[in-house]
Amino acid sequence: MTATAPIGLSDLRSFLHGLPGVDKVGVEARAAALGTRSVKTSSKAKAIDLAIRMVDLTTLEGADTPGKVRALCAKGRRPDPADPSCPPVAAICVYPAMVPVAAAALAGSGVHLASVATAFPSGQAPLEVKLADTRAAVAAGADEVDMVISRGAFLAGDYAKVFDEIVAVKEACGGAHLKVILETGELATYDNVRRASWLAMLAGADFIKTSTGKVAVNATLPITLVMLEAVRDFRERYGRQIGVKPAGGIKNTKDAIKYLVLINETVGDDWLSPDWFRFGASSLLNDLLMQRTKLTTGHYAGPDYFTLD
Which of 63, 91, 234, 294 has the fewest Cβ atoms within 10 angstroms? Predict the structure, then answer.
């Protein structure tokens, strides 16, 4: 085990199954209640800029081209070319093959470069392939790696295999941060989401992430609430803070603000930073920019004012 988790592999199963069960009704009710909170106009502008700074602007399509990646990097660096006060995004997220292109386009910008290594999105590849994928992405310039766990192994109860893979990928990351994708839409229960969150953190994850965005159910407020509670409790127990990244299906400003409220009410200001919370999104940024323009000018920008990604 890692230095943060003074339990042996033989105790891992009993530890994970000894975690408190999740009250499904309670979690969903609390998430729904927090989702109704309103944000005043004076605070909304700050919330929108914070959300922009939290975006991992993402393109993960088989048809990605160097030109598309360069355009995405330019948008991430300067989301609104007409307004230099608009902050940049947190990171650009691409497939490993596109990392060299993105690294060149982001040089000197301060925008992070994330890559979905480890046989994304299925995770169905030998560990040696996942490690080679990770090392290549980092060598090419990625300073963040988004890995996906082996859900089949997790659901079969082979926690040791999942743990060992995360440990190995973390080592292969070197100095790069590791975000561990749980693919919560395939985990079936909130109890499994909590166990997978703790498993990833015990194995050395820097962030835990909901989804690949490639399955039917991606990020939801209740699932993110369970994960936020996990990182809160983990820090209390082990003294190490872990980030959270909901990804997939977060498309508009209203939804993004709901997540910011959820953070504030569950874990507090310590996580209200792109260092500790990210949105994995492609279309969210445009809506944030449209709402930002509305607040500053009083008028909505046309749907074609910002580039479509």
Answer: 63
